[in-house]
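Q: what sequence does this backbone want?
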């Protein structure tokens, strides 16, 4: 039996997304619930994949099946494809299983040629309209199918508009359009080496190939990579009867959301243009009107549209993004899909829909992308700041950012990768700019609306954007823009506020965000569902307090080495490292002891009643000393300037110590518990500082739950010896203070051997905490800094690795070690508490794995705590 590759809209449904693509499945669903959808057909994603497998050749039988199904569309439309008297014109659109807005190519008015043009003129009695359709078709076909730069078509169009003294396309006269069409055809022949195709069936075959090929165009590949969309999904092709929004003042086109995609407020939110086609709205070519104005201009159409919006939202039980066209007063729906939204909008919509009875609390939790929640925690412009905006556009994507003005996406990418903050400034963005948007802090455009490419992409990425800022006049040649007589050059710093649309000159003060009541409500629902506790990594009392505000249930990692780096302490730490005798080292440690005690006092007090895991010194000691290269340069300078011989001798002594401590592979060198074994006085000082702070707080009536963590253990004997040391110090502090207190001693599991011998190590450990950064390095044999700088990006590009294992936990390798450690550890100690700290503790995929293998908690940076709370709840729901 021949495989079926072509489906009429009436044959599909919303559940066929993987086969028909999101757009095709939704067109089928809307057709079947009786909405005014122009008839059409969908060529499946399987056909695209087979086309690619066959080396860009159509699957057997596809063309014959397409011809047959097209006849059925002709019957439904009452028109004939390629007919000279009553021509059927179609749009050809891509539609992947996952929404990829602006990433794929679209062609409108296909089927027009010199002959069918006359039929369209005769049928509509509107020569200007028909010529405009033909002009648009040649331009889109030439660009999308034949690969001719759209700028070349625009140059011809602008030349004629300037000659006639008109601003908009619809003001062009029929004679002018005829001249433009002739010049477009010449351009096509000159650029492609062949005349513009006149056979409608050839046009359709070429368009289908172009859509299939567009699945692998650079911007689609980049979008899939950013959004983790599988490369083997393929795209469907939707061939749909054209309806025309450019047939005069009673026609129009628009895009609308059933709720505000920036804020989540209920109500139709969108834009439209009269006498225009769809690409005029989404491409930002003309700045459209707010849809509320349609209520005054076409009240009957608006009322019908309101009804359809309500029906679609109830049917899909989610906010919808709807494309529509009005042809001579009649409303048609061309597409609906689940609308992309900001994190704030996603949360409000989810909570509101629970309150409206549309979805359950569990569905609401699963509706909000956990990673997206992190966007809410970015800073905003300080409302107390007295600022004067130099321009104002549309508030297209919330958040605020400052950066250097850049006019080119390639330059934005380059500077962004170099660590510079940039704002990408464009007349309007196109899908080809996506790599620059990724690296920019925000986007500013002079044209385009709230549904333009820049707005949609920025919202999806959680980046601020201001669009349609007509006050700025961009001069690409001079690399500047002008606003109110003021010149802003490339490299100048500006700030944008995506919540208000304001643009400011220079850098502006930013403040931490305030979380909405809906945000707190959603997280409270998540807390009721999740099993995993969420702790935070915090090295200061301020971090600890912020963590607690974000809902952390303790501190999973306090890195004591960060405390040693303070400028007032570093000389004492260096004195301790360079000590020649134990007595000299003890003297330096005695100076550090009260400082460390104060550190621990502040953090423990901030987390009253909650566990605080304090990791003893981990990095190698040479990290606290100057680099040998810096010292050689400094000594040479001192010698050349005849400086103090005593100072030179001191620097030379430090250089000898630095060189003596240098290691070929510090990650696997003299660090972690190995320091505690060789210099037990260091760990003893830290334990004493912890327990004195505990005793002091206990006397003050503050309940504290300290957990002393020994890093980098690979053998039970290391942990046994250092646990005895910690217990001895605790006993001494209890005796000297007369205060009884409780504490735990455990270890970080961050080496493969520790995982393999976890059953033995658990005899001495009351808790395990996975240090998956080091465990990943040791498992892969990667030095993270070297790997990420030299070859890991290539591994990801070539798909040798699917994800960066330092960001998303490697379940197959590192995960197996973790599972082994959990199982073996709990065989020895059934009540063993096991957690994870570091970057993986805030990554939703890694959190899901931690839930699956039975960890008790995850620990992450303070600003990732809400993300982890939601991700932990989602993991629990998905495991049911």
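A:
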């Amino acid at each position: 039996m021949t495989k079926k590759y072509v489906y009429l809209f009436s044959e599909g449904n919303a559940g066929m997304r993987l086969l028909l693509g999101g757009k095709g499945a939704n067109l089928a669903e809307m057709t079947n619930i009786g909405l005014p959808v122009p008839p059409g057909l969908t060529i499946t994603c399987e056909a695209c994949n087979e086309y690619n497998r066959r080396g860009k050749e159509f699957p057997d039988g596809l063309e014959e099946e397409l011809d047959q199904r097209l006849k059925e569309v002709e019957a439904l439309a009452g028109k004939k494809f390629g007919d000279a008297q009553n021509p059927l014109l179609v749009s050809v659109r891509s539609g992947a299983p996952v929404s990829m807005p602006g990433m794929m190519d679209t062609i409108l008015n296909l089927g027009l040629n010199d002959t069918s043009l006359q039929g369209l003129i005769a049928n509509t009695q509107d020569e200007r309209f028909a010529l405009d359709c033909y002009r648009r078709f040649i331009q889109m076909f030439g660009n999308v199918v034949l690969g001719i730069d759209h700028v070349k078509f625009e140059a011809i169009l602008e030349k004629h508009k300037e000659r006639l003294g008109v601003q908009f396309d619809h003001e062009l006269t029929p004679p002018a359009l005829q001249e433009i069409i002739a010049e477009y055809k010449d351009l096509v022949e000159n650029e492609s080496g062949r005349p513009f195709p006149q056979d409608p069936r050839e046009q359709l075959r070429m368009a289908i190939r172009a859509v299939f090929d567009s699945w692998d165009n650079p911007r689609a590949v980049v979008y899939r990579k950013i959004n983790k969309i599988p490369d083997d999904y393929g795209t469907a092709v939707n061939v749909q009867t054209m309806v025309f929004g450019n047939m005069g003042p009673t026609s129009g086109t628009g895009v609308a959301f059933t709720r505000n995609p920036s804020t989540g407020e209920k109500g139709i939110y969108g834009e439209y243009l009269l006498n225009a086609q769809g690409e005029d709205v989404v491409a930002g070519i003309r700045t459209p009107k707010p849809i509320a104005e349609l209520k005054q201009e076409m009240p009957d159409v608006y009322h019908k549209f309101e009804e359809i919006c309500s029906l679609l939202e109830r049917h899909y039980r989610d906010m919808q993004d709807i494309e529509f066209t009005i042809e001579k007063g009649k409303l048609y729906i061309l597409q609906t899909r689940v609308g992309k939204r900001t994190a704030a909008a996603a949360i409000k919509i989810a909570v509101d829909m629970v309150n409206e009875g549309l979805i359950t609390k569990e569905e609401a939790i699963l509706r909000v992308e956990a990673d997206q929640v992190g966007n809410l925690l970015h800073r905003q412009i300080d409302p107390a700041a007295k600022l004067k905006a130099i321009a104002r556009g549309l508030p297209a994507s919330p958040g605020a950012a400052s950066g250097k003005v850049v006019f080119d996406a390639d330059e934005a990418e380059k500077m962004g990768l170099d660590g510079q903050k940039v704002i990408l400034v464009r007349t309007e963005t196109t899908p080809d700019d996506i790599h620059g948007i990724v690296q920019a802090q925000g986007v500013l455009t002079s044209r385009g609306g709230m549904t333009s490419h820049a707005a949609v992409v920025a919202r999806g990425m959680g980046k601020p954007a201001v669009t349609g800022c007509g006050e700025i006049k961009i001069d690409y040649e001079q690399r500047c823009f002008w606003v109110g007589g003021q010149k802003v050059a490339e490299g100048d710093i500006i700030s944008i506020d995506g919540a208000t649309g304001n643009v400011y000159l220079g850098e502006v003060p930013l403040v931490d965000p305030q979380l909405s009541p809906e945000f707190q409500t959603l997280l409270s629902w998540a807390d009721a569902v999740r099993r995993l506790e969420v702790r935070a990594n915090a090295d200061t009392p301020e971090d600890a307090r912020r963590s607690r505000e974000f809902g952390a249930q303790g501190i999973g990692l306090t890195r004591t080495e960060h405390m040693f780096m303070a400028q007032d302490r570093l000389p004492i730490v260096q004195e301790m490292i360079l000590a020649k005798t134990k007595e000299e080292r003890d003297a330096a440690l005695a100076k550090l002891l009260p400082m460390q005690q104060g550190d621990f006092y502040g953090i423990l007090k901030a987390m009253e009643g909650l566990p605080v895991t304090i990791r003893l010194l981990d990095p190698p000691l040479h990290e606290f000393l100057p680099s040998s290269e810096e010292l050689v340069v400094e000594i040479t300078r001192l010698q050349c300037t005849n400086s103090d011989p005593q100072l030179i001798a001191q620097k030379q002594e430090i250089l000898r110590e630095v060189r003596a401590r240098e290691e070929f592979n510090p990650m696997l060198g003299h660090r972690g518990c190995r320091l505690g074994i060789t210099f037990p006085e260091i760990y003893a000082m830290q334990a004493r500082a912890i327990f004195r702070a505990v005793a002091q707080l206990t006397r003050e009536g503050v309940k504290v739950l300290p957990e002393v963590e020994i890093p980098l253990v690979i053998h039970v004997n290391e942990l046994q010896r250092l646990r005895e040391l910690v217990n001895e110090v605790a006993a001494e502090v209890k005796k000297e203070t007369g205060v009884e207190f409780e504490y735990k001693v455990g270890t970080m599991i961050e080496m493969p051997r520790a995982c393999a011998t976890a059953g033995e190590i658990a005899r001495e450990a009351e808790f395990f905490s996975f240090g998956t950064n080091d465990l990943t390095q040791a498992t892969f044999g990667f030095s993270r800094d070297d790997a990420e700088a030299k070859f890991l990006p290539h591994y990801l590009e070539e798909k040798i690795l699917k994800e960066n294992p330092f960001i998303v936990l490697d379940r197959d390798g590192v995960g197996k070690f973790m599972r082994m450690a959990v199982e073996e550890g709990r065989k020895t100690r059934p009540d063993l508490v096991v957690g994870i700290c570091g970057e993986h503790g805030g990554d939703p995929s890694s959190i899901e794995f931690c839930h699956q293998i039975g960890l008790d908690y995850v620990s992450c940076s303070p600003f990732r705590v809400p993300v982890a709370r939601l991700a932990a709840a989602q993991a629990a729901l998905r495991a049911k």
